[in-house]
Every structure is written in C-alpha cells, then in structure tokens.
Amino acid sequence: MTQLIRTAALTVDFSKERHELLAKGALSRVVQPVLDRMNDRLRVEKPAMVREMDVVATTWLPPIPSGPFKRLILNEAKMAIGRPVPQTVSIEVTRECGCRCDHCNIGEGEEELEGKDIERVIDEALDLGACIITFTEGDPLLREDIFDLIAHVDPELAVTNLFTPGIEMTPDIARRLKNAGLYNLLVGIYSTDSNEHDRVRGVEGAFEKAISAIRCALNEGLMVTMTTHVTSKGINQLPDLYDLAKDLGVHEFSIWEGIPRDADDILSQIDREKIMRLYQKANSSRDGPRVFASTFFEGQMMGCMAGRRWQHVAVDGSVRGCPYLKESYGNVLDLPLKEIWKRMRASGDFDGFEGSCPAQELS
C-alpha cells in the first residue's frame, strides 16, 4: 500500500497489487466518488503501462503514484466543493509545420508566443494547479527551444505531453525529448492507407515519416500514444488502426471524436457504439495497447473537460476552454492565466455536467 496524500482532512492510499485507490478523512466523501470511478476502470481495464514504481492507467493522466497524480486528486477535491481547477493546460507553441492539413486553422497569421511568454504561462498554469501540460500545434518539434520548454515543467508538479505529426522526428530528437523529461509523445495517424493519410496531411510520405517517428520514440524509451480523430466517414477504419498500433507496440491508441465539417461527418449513436465496442474489447484483452476514447472519458465518465478541467492557450496567446471551441476569454499577453480562468468560470458557459462534446455541433 502506497500513501499518495496525507493531510489533516484527507489521506489517499493506493494498492498496486489490487489497483485500488482509497480515501480517508473528512474530505473522503467528496473525493472517494471520483476514486471509485478510477477504481472501476482499473479493475476492468488494462493499464497503459505497469512499471516497477508506478502504474500508468492511461497516458492522458499522471502515473500512480506521483506528485502530479497527488495534485490531480487534490484538484478533484476542489472540484467537488465548487472550486474547479484547470488540471490540463494545452499550449499551441508554433504555427510552423511541415504538413498542410486541410483541417488546420492556425497556419495563417503571424502572432506566436515567445519562449519567455510560454515559460510564464507554464509557471502560471502550475500555480493554478495544472498537473498535465501539453504542447501542440502546428509541429512543436520545429521550435528550437522545445526541449527547454519541456524541461521547464517541474516533473514533481505536472507531466508533459507533446503532439507531433512526426515529420521532423529523428533518433537524436527522440533522445533529446527523453532527456528533457517528456512524459508522453503523441503521433497522429489518420488512416492505415498511406495515400489517404498523406492526403489528409497534404504531404507525400507523411505516413511513413509518422511510422518512423513512433519507432524512433519507442527505441529511445519514450512512452508513445498513437492518436486519431474519427468522423462518421472513417469509423470503420478503427479496427485496422488499432491493429497498426498493436503492430507498432505503442502504449495506447487514442480515439478522439473529430470535429465535423459537414453533415456526413457527424458521429451517430451507432458510430459511438462501434467506438465503445472496440474500447471495451481492447481494454479487456491482455494483448495489444490500451485504448483511450474521448467518447467514454469525456462522455459518461468525466463529462466535457473544456472550461471545467481544461484550459487551452492558442498560438497567439488567446485562451479558450479547449482547442475546439472558438470563444476567447482573454489573452496571456494581457492578463495572467488565473484571471482568464476566473473570467471563463464566471461566464457560465461551463456550468454543470456536459455529457457530449459541444464542438460536435456544426457551426
């Protein structure tokens, strides 16, 4: 039994043998329901990774036990008493990218946060209670200071994720990411058909480069998640994509509901049931990587995270509830992240439980 938290009002223990979290103390009533949801997943689903000192239930959360996971639990206690904390802060660090994706919406424009601004945002996010920092858009590997930005995140306070299309990856870059302290590398694959993936990315050879990026990262001992965004048109590709993730040996296959561009893209209830069948089948099997599905995690389990547990900083410094919502509540070049979070919460736009992604509705 490992003790994660011990305060006057709350003690949280974790049994690695039983994969169980247990709260005690005055705050246990507000924390245990969240722990019970986690325990339920730990009982019926395989983790992404079991290491000597910890368990990675999913690559989207800090390992258990760890300093960042301790903060996550304390944040959930605050959430339960009406004081939400942005547990995840994602930051778009550059407009530069070797791809020309047709769904990209940040390629135009010139504004881009400087390194000192991003470091300040990281510090302010950690002060707010963030335990997950994610670098994204367009390709963070094109920032020369990305390794410094990763190293700037205190690993005792938060884990660091990074999205990349994989175009720029080399063994040396993978090694430097590992040495900088990157927790998890996320590489997007849109189809097992290389021509289709290349079409989406707008670059010939993008598929092979993404596959090579995954292999480079795994060879250097990085934790790797293969991600995809799915719409109704591509729902039947998911089993083949999972088989590819399995062949590559990644730690998790992550399925995100893609933002629809027309009526044919909108996921139906039948489509979501297909996602859930793959999710349940894969996570109950000993073979292959774990599956993460926003359909479940941000649906019936935790609800929409935007503006509740998630704050997104765009490449120009504007702040939204998540990358997929358009409304900005301030800019980090003008206001501290804390003040923008207060604005976001005071807006009323993120009150209550939201069991589906609001960005799924066609604008």
Write up what this structure looks like:
- There is one protein chain.
- With 363 residues, the protein is of the alpha/beta class.
- It has eleven helices and 14 strands.
- The strands form three sheets. It has a nine-stranded mixed beta sheet. Strands 1-2-3 form a three-stranded antiparallel beta sheet. Strands 4-5 form a two-stranded antiparallel ribbon.
- Helix 1 (28-44) crosses helix 2 (67-80).
* Strands, count: 14
Radius of gyration equals 19 Å
Give start-end ranges of low-pLDDT stretches.
none
- Label the overall shape: globular
Number of helices: 11
Name the helicity range: 25-40%
Percentage beta strand: 15-25%
State the secondary-structure class. Answer: alpha/beta
User: How are the strands of the largest sheet arranged?
Assistant: 12-11-10-9-8-7-6-13-14
End-to-end separation in angstroms reads 50 Å
Q: Tell me about the biggest sheet?
A: 9 strands, mixed
On the 0 to 100 scale, the average pLDDT is 92
**Could you spell the SSE succession in H and E letters?**
EEEHEEHEHEHEHEHHEHEHEHEEH
State the main characteristics:
11 helices; 35% helix; globular; 363 residues
Short description:
This protein has 363 residues and is α/β, with parallel strands linked by helices. Helix content is 35%, strand content 18%. The relative contact order is 0.11.
